[in-house]
Amino acid sequence: xxxxxxxxxxxTAVTLLWITIAVGVIRSIMEFSNSLETxxxxxxxxxxxxxxxxxxxxxLAFFIFMIGNGKNWARITFLVLFIIGIPFSILPATxxxxxxxxxxxLGISQTIxxxxxxxxxxQKPSSDWFKSMKK
Length: 135
Prior knowledge:
By secondary structure, this protein is mostly helical. The chain is built from 5 helices and no strands. It has helices at 8-41, 46-68, 72-99, 101-121, 124-134. The protein is elongated, with a radius of gyration of 17 Å.
């Protein structure tokens, strides 16, 4: 049985998620000195900040790649992690808006793009495609 081609909504969602990664890289660069100050105050150095940033971006990239390949578990896990992360992102988003408004706006934009992507990923054509990819 031939697998169905990826629906436009899934392709759009994956593209939006890759854009959020790119915005994350930009924000990481913008926020590096603030992150370094926080890490240094906690007893960590710049290597730790860089490692955590790369690890986080690689972790997200892995899920986006798997979603793009039709892995339903990746779509569901991404949703669960997003929901769990929302309460923990409110204070940092507020602080970012105050300390660096451009970075704060980019962060809010990332969240909005991720919400749109998740809506696309859980619409019927997308869900049907993910189910068909299991076969």
